[in-house]
Amino acid sequence: SSEHTLDRDCTTLSRHVLQQLQSFGPEAQDLSALMNRIALAGKLIARHLSRAGLVADTLGFTGKTNVQGEDVKKMDVFANDVFISVFKQSGLVCRLASEEMDKPYYIPENCPIGRYTLLYDPIDGSSNVDINLNVGSIFAIRRQTDDDLDQSASDLLTHGRDQLAAGYILYGPTTVLVYSIGNGVHSFTLDPSLGEFILTAENIQVPQHGPTYSVNEGNFWQWEESIRDFTRYVHRHEGYSSRYSGALVGDFHRILMQGGVFLYPGTKKKPEGKLRLLYETAPLAFLIEQAGGSASTGTERLLDVVPTELHQRTPLVIGSTEDVSLVESFIQERL
Ligand code: AHM
Ligand code: MG
């Protein structure tokens, strides 16, 4: 096999979505079009990231804070706007909601026909941008039932089982897109010379157990005793390895591919932890269940959580079923 022969059959993302959808109904064409737009957003963001520091306004802060009181980076704003402009042209999405926007963003010209909402975190792990480490984008597509444009978006406040599709884009040494439309989890790698996402892993299954535990142990001082019990357990048993990059998408991707558990537990002061349900934890929970793993708040299946507000946070325990159960068992013991 020389470099001139294809070592894969070169299934592109758009072809794959269409193949996946053969058994689906009228939504098939829509989901396919939506995935193509998400892929385009991913390419535009990957291109911008690859020039960070070389062109103006790519690194550092804007000087503003978002609705959650976090400092906003230039890359957050850029990526947030990329998704908006890409979906303005799609016709299918009437509303977008993201980590960077206080309220949902409506595209009135799409709303008569746009039956979907895109939920997204444009740059996950943005503290990694300035030091040239991996970041990601997380997305979920939900059916939109509320079209009165009253901005309440109360129809979004349902459990994560209502997601039609979910996935992420990981901007690492290569750009990888992972998605599920409820029919397995599939991964694609961007071939920059073709500008296409090419299928690299189909029907990914997470191992039932893995060596990695991924958690910010700097928070030990403010954890509940149960989470401390878990970390003491892994410190005292052979076969565990600690990995934590500061970008959820990257840490999750390792666990999806190799097994283990990622945790962002609540703390005594913030029992809900840091990560947001609708565009961070629920999409990844959808993926891990599709891959045969589990996602939990520690006491409840994550996809069962019904939020009361758009930017609601949840604790997260996600990964291999056995490892998630182990964490849950420590929590049960202390309830
Ligand atoms: P962000 O979306 O504002 O970047 O925040 C989410 C990130 C996750 O990617 C990561 O897992 C976590 O925050 C890291 O937080 P901490 O620095 O508290 O460990
Ligand atoms: Mg985030």
TrEMBL record:
Lineage: Bacteria, Bacillati, Cyanobacteriota, Cyanophyceae, Leptolyngbyales
Cofactor annotation comment: Binds 2 magnesium ions per subunit.
Catalytic activity reported: beta-D-fructose 1,6-bisphosphate + H2O = beta-D-fructose 6-phosphate + phosphate
UniProt organism field: Leptolyngbya iicbica LK
Limits of the Fructose-1-6-bisphosphatase class 1 C-terminal domain: 206-331
Entry protein name: Fructose-1,6-bisphosphatase class 1
UniProt binding sites for Mg(2+) 1: 99, 121, 123
GO molecular function: fructose 1,6-bisphosphate 1-phosphatase activity; magnesium ion binding
Record keywords, A-Z: Calvin cycle, Carbohydrate metabolism, Cytoplasm, Hydrolase, Magnesium, Metal-binding
Residues reported in the UniProt entry to bind Mg(2+) 2: 121, 124, 280
